[in-house]
Amino acid sequence: MENKNINEIYSLAMNEIQQSEDTNKLQELKIKFLAKKSVLSSLMSELANLPPEERKEFGKNLNDVRNRISEELAKKEAELRKNELDKKLKSETIDITLPSRKVELGGQNPFYVVKDEITDIFLNMGFEVADGPEVETDLFNFELLNIPKDHPARDMQDTFYISDNVLLRTHTSPVQAHVMQEANGKPIRIICPGKTYRRDDDDATHSHQFAQIEGLVIDKNINIGHLKATLELFAKKMFGEKREIRLRPSYFPFTEPSVEVDITCANCGGKGCSMCKGTGYIEILGGGMVHPNVLKMNGYDPDEYSGFAFGIGIERVAILRFGIDDIRRFYQNDVRFLHQYRRKA
Ligand code: DAH
Description:
The chain folds into 2 domains: 6-91; 110-340, BirA Bifunctional Protein, domain 2. Helix content is 43%, strand content 20%. The chain has helices at 2-19, 23-34, 39-46, 52-91, 110-124, 138-141, 174-183, 224-239, 292-297, 314-322, 329-332, 335-339; strands spanning 128-129, 135-137, 161-163, 166-168, 188-197, 209-219, 245-252, 255-264, 281-290, 306-313. A hairpin with a 2-residue loop joins strand 3 and strand 4 (166-168). The longest helix has 40 residues, at 52-91. It starts with a helix and ends in a 6-residue tail after the last helix.
């Protein structure tokens, strides 16, 4: 009968130990099953009442059960302690990594912002982008543009000469001659953004190196209305829908007639202020109808074809667009200047 009791106590103990969820509970079970006043201990005191032949076996069983409960308690305790430690390690994790140093993103030079915008406006009108050399011959820079040797217009475009006939181009207009000669009499609709050079003393409004965007359209029946409409669309896209343009007669050897294009002053809306020197207008570019001599020299019959051309100063447009006070800022790479034109991601 006592053995039955021992087995019941054993199963009960194993069960409760298995179901324990923390070490405090195990402590209680230790007291319940193994301490002096535990059930097992009280069974031990019954040992004396048994007949001597049963005593040995009963005592052995009792000890066995004690040891097994004790082992099980120790095993469970180790298991629970490990779980508790794991839990603690997880909940008390500290992120000891340092955030990395911030890399400052630079700003895009407003020159390129404007160059890309102008290019996009013309690409959307169906123009293609052409390219040409910065080191030019006298032939392409001047003569094929109807500026023969000794022409007074050369005075305004002195430049850096590599030899008598090779020079850094003074404008992007020579690309007109290159494109015409390559197009073999086919219609043309191109722009050419690029660097240009002049022998100038650098100051707030002059730079020995600057950039232009040349435009050239050649086809049958092109007239000055096409030029005006194209440049009007450009001005509105670039400077805002409210801007008006005005064409003023001008002179360029490679166009006839030639015009200078003004936009209404953004500052006063055309009334006249210090920014537009009281005129209400600000000059933005030059253009005109391609001179018959230029068409002829570059392989087009002026009786069949006509065209218009224009030249835009990129820095000039950027200066007007962003209110920049000095053309040299574009080239100085001062990060304080460039940061003002950081594009939002
Ligand atoms: N090449 C001229 C300059 O640098 C600008 C220009 C004027 C270009 C009229 C043109 C044009 O194509 O038609 O001053």
